[in-house]
Design goal:
This protein has 8 helices and 4 strands. It is of the alpha+beta class. The termini are far apart.
Length: about 160
Amino acid sequence: MEWLEYHRHDEIKNLICNTAGLQGEVDNLLRADHAIIIEKLDAVCTTLASLLSQVAEFRGLSVAMVPEAELSNQAVHVLRQLVNSDAQYIIYTPLDSTRVGFQLSNDELMQFTELRFLKDDLDKLVSLGLLTAEFTGSDTILFHITRNAVRLIGAIEKRAAL
């Protein structure tokens, strides 16, 4: 609090002091391992950059700051197909090195453009919290939609309509 006061961050200091829950969370952060906190902040930064890479005004900035964060066109296309359907999940089954079973839970076939990067794109969507993966015990994976996926596609489509 002294540091905030010395550096004239009175609004932040007052917010922390007047919000008991926030003060407890700040105390917990200060007691946590610094390296772990930095690692988690880096993960948050990468996630935010990935999401911002889909907004035209922020794409250049996000790709410049975190080049590996950009979502591929295929990843967005796959996500859009799921969001715009009435399906709850995608069924992904590798058949061999050149074929996969890839369909929605309502039996509609999914479209994709680059088979060799499809699993990578699905894993990226999972790491960003846009899909969740359910392993079935066989080679089949069910990728479930999340609310964040719906929000992201809604924001992308809203922006494209402007």
